[in-house]
Amino acid sequence: MALQSLDITRRSASPTASPQARKTIEIAKLIDVSTCIGCKACQVACSEWNDIREEVGHNIGVYDNPTDLSADAWTVMRFAEEESNGKLEWLIRKDGCMHCADPGCLKACPSPGAIIQYSNGIVDFHQENCIGCGYCVSGCPFNVPRISQKDNKAYKCTLCSDRVAVGQEPACVKTCPTGAIQFGSKEDMKQVAATRVTDLKQRGYDNAGLYDPQGVGGTHVMYVLHHADKPEQYSGLPKDPAISTTVQLWKGWLKPLATIGIAAAGLFGFFHYITVGPNRADDEDDSATNVGRNEEDKA
Amino acid sequence: MKPQLIQRYSAPERINHWIVAVCFILLALSGLAFFYPAFFWLTGVFGTPQLARIIHPFVGVLMFVAFARQFFRYWHHNLLTRDDIQWMKSVKTVMQGHEVGDTGKYNGGQKGMFWMMCACMLVLLVSGIIAWRPYFAIHLPIPLIRIALLAHACAAIALIASIIVHVYAAFWVKGTIRAMVEGVVTHGWAKKHHPRWYREVTGKQK
Q1: Range of B176's domain?
Q2: What is the pLDDT of residues B43-80, one digit of tens each?
Q3: How do residues B99-121 score in pLDDT, each as one tens digit?
Q4: Which of A138, A142, A255, A275 to mutate to test the interface with B (most CBs of B within 10 A)?
Q5: How many Cβ contacts (< 8 angstroms) between chains A and B?
Q6: Domains of chain A, residue spans
Q7: Which residues bind [4Fe-4S] cluster 2 (chain A) (predicted)?
């Protein structure tokens, strides 16, 4: 969706600012895990709207199918069987890009404009600029981006940026039969979540809460969890996601250090040569220069 | 060869060196492009950014293989001795253009540079393979790839800074570039900079 260029607030590998004048409303998708029935209509809607078809895989004994995100499956339902208070709980989570406010993929990407963030909060991949290096995969704290085996480009959920740009909700939201997925301004979604959390608490889920992790500046896909104290139970949703320290060092600290190191080596050589001068063996055929130098020394 | 010149590097040695050098330049330029957003245009050395991403690792393997050949040519000339430590301690004097110690084929600085390059090349190869898409990275855990990417960048920067010093040293000590281009050095050059090596190759006492 490169046409929305004025609404792009951040571009990968672009040291100078993007146009900042236009301010759009920050949006969010709210996934209420406690209302989800695991029907996978959202997976189908995603596949339909985005014209992507993952190959039919094999049953591995659980409902997960496809079993993982891929370049052709931008959202998957993950089914976890967990025990709490002596009761079996079937925790179903719709996994996909979280659209972080501080996206690790964008920070890691070396290709200008291959990853962009709209002012509404959507993080989108522009595959025409993607070089297939996989740095976004390393940058992501949620293990979301996937490199296609067919074209070596990175893919993930776009939050239907094309639909949102024309005032429509994402395809998964539109299709969800239970209303477990809602879409609106981030403020509104937080309010909806707060109501739902209060409701869950009244029904005995003391640790119910909103998942909007601040380690990545908050996300534009949020979950209502009945066990917000243990997000890991939901098929490994990270408790305190943040861009990895390794990636921070690599994309942050190392750059100025490298600049200083390389510049120091070059400048040292230059100033050494123009002050100390060349190191010549005596019998070289440049006696004229040597004579001149010796005279200089004498004077 | 003129009688007053001494052979320092044979033709195969020179070809080997320049294969490594050309690979290094291509890798450094494309690598800096991946590292610094403002220099992304340097991916142009391989045509397009996508091509640069594809070709960079293959050139890297070629550089490693060619460098490995150099390693087996030169490692025994680069074992550090007490004289070399003395040389490194007197590096200030050396920089003034004075010689220190009875230097053999390589001085302490050159030996240090040799082992520095070896270390960087090894780190670059291992980390480069770990991060190499689509062949290897897809089979490896993400935290390992993150460490590899950081290590690759660190080793590359260390190598680039080292090579700047290496190139400058060759440019500063007149007559050195000729050794790696034409393969020969003058008696004066050998006597001044590598006296022990000079005696070894000429059989002269002084």
Answers
A1: 5-202
A2: 999 999 999 999 999 999 999 999 999 999 999 999 99
A3: 999 999 999 999 999 999 999 99
A4: A138
A5: 133
A6: 2-243, 252-298
A7: 46, 157, 160, 172
**Residue in A152, A249, A265 closest to B161 by CB:** A265
pLDDT exceeds cutoff 90 at B182: yes
Number of domains within chain B: 1
- What are B9's two structure tokens? 């590097």
Question: Is the pLDDT confidence value at A52 over 90?
Answer: yes
Q: What is the CATH number of the domain that holds B114?
A: 1.20.950.20
Please tell me if residue B37 touches chain A, with a CB cutoff of 8 Å: yes
A275: nearest CA partner in chain B? B96
pLDDT at A4: 54
Architecture of domain A2-243: 2-Layer Sandwich (3.30)
In tens, the pLDDT along A112-127 reads 999 999 999 999 999 9
User: How far apart are the CA of B153 and the nearest CA of chain A, in angstroms?
Assistant: 7
Tell me whether B91 touches chain A (CB under 8 Å): no
A269 in B contact zone (CB under 8 Å): yes
Are the beta carbons of A111 and B49 separated by less than 8 Å? yes
What is the rounded average pLDDT for all residues in chain A?
A: 92
Contact B143 A246 (CB under 8 A): yes
Catalytic residue flag (residue B187): no
Please give the ipTM for the structure prediction: 0.91
